[in-house]
Amino acid sequence: MATPLSHTSLSPFRTIAVVGLGTMGTGIAEVLARAGRDVVGIDVSEAQATTAVAALESSTARSVERGRLTEQERAEALARVRTSTDLRQAADADLVIEVVPESYEIKQQVFRELDGIVRPETILATGTNALSVTRLAAESSRPERVLGLHFFNPAPAMKLVEVVSSVLTSPGAVAAVTDLALDLGKEPVAVGDRPGFVADGLLFGYLNQAAAMYEANYASREDIDAAMRLGCGLPMGPLALLDLIGVDTARTVLEAMYTASHDRLHAPAPILRQLSEAGLTGRKAGRGFYTYEAPGSAVVVPDALTPRAGDTPVPGRPVRSVGVAGSGTMASGIAEVFAKAGYEVVLAARSAEKAQTAKARIGKSLARGVDKGRITAEAAARTLERITPTGTYDDFGDVDLAVEAVAEDLEVKRQLFATLDKVCKPGAVLATTTSSLPVVACARATSRPQDVIGMHFFNPAPAMKLVEVVRTVLTADDVHATVREVCAKIRKHAVDCGDRAGFIVNALLFPYLNNAVKMVQEHYATLDDIDAAMKLGGGYPMGPFELLDVVGLDVSLAIEKVLHREFRDPGLAPAPLLEHLVAAGCLGRKTGRGFREYARR
């Protein structure tokens, strides 16, 4: 019979065995050794064990070069690691962490063998991110001592560790492993047992949708990745990240998630199966969504799908002056962007007073830029001089490009486009900045739908580099070319997409945010743990609940409703908790309360 679990006696974990010395296992071994633990690294392959030692030597040498370790600390850490191909070498371990391939059969075999090898008080941890910890624990003779310990790759750099308990896990085991994670300098998040846990549970649904978006030929791989990097501040685009993780690994995780949830958003996109079965599993194979210099290389090389620079079929129309319709933050930001780039700008609002207020806002923005050294006082003054405020759209008569940034209401926009159709000269390009409404509906309000296109800027427009260029089925080629050329002149990164709900960014971002709300609604994890998991485990600049409160819960709900209405997928239905908060007037920072409470200004 196992001895009672004592928190205090277990927390030191002096000797730890790591079973499986791939990239993750080697990284975990390094983290443990640098924190003063004796590590036994075990792998069935002697060659893999040798490779792991070489990787440890190389990694710690880089740390010395960067001043993160002294030569003596490096030598001491390396001396704490020994490797073996014999699982019996785990006999004296206080904790065993397995990171063998994601297969129930392989992991259960390891746990069965460990049951007959380790001491009764030893804790067994699985590094899985896709399989059921409960199912693995149930196969063990010590289920109360089995839990999940999910590190993120690369383990030495990534701060997040998910500590996963099943209904069988002893609280003492969880507490002891949590203490260890803190001692390793990690930030542990306690979660229950479901596929993907918190970080991967949210991340892989998003990655899957990005793969499906690419497969549908909605946007190019480069544009999907650029949109999410520049529009959301993510360190990598989703398709590049799938290549890094491994397309086959992503498929395995998604299969497990779909089996548990039956949510169609988790059903692996067919392209993941096709690439996996063709052996095109990403960086490790030298080819996945992208092509790489060599297997294992991070260097992307051109292939048949790589767009050629300057490959434009038709030239754009000349644009010298721009009209911006609206008086809010987005309109004034867009006017500032065009004026900075040297365009003459007519800023029109519903009244001359509103237009003057918008120009004053631009003046303050430029003054802040001067204070921060981003623009000279002379350049700021010239920029402001290029902006002519007006209370009538009649002053758009000579503009070459008219950009509307009025309320996100289809009837309001349709009426405005009908007005622009009357006042703008023939050949002027008419653009909408809508983020969720059909561009073609704006186009059909005019007699020249071929001249209408979407230019979705991101807020704040002067700072955000991305513009989604949205073609309808009626948009003329030279209108598309015009907007691409203008984006280059205003130093924005343009990505092309079709006229469907959410375009690229919102169509991928808001289902992820909605799924985070569902996690809280189901009491699976707390707001703080989910935000921490996505920032520390996914490299997101903000956690989902921080972002929801900044965007506004009412705005978020409206976008989610549009996505659900267009794609008719039950998994896109807005989480009831979000609807309840909006109904209660808890809209985020702007009302002082959303998912969190904020101090009133």
TrEMBL record:
Belongs to the 3-hydroxyacyl-CoA dehydrogenase family. Residues 196-292, 502-598 form the 3-hydroxyacyl-CoA dehydrogenase C-terminal domain. Pfam families: 3HCDH, 3HCDH_N. It comes from Streptomyces ambofaciens (strain ATCC 23877 / 3486 / DSM 40053 / JCM 4204 / NBRC 12836 / NRRL B-2516). It comes from the Bacteria. Pathway: Lipid metabolism; butanoate metabolism. SUPFAM superfamilies: 6-phosphogluconate dehydrogenase C-terminal domain-like, NAD(P)-binding Rossmann-fold domains. Signal peptide: none annotated. One of its GO terms (molecular function) is NAD+ binding. Keywords: Oxidoreductase. One of its GO terms (biological process) is fatty acid beta-oxidation. Residues 15-193, 322-499 form the 3-hydroxyacyl-CoA dehydrogenase NAD binding domain. The keyword Iron does not apply. This is Oxidoreductase.
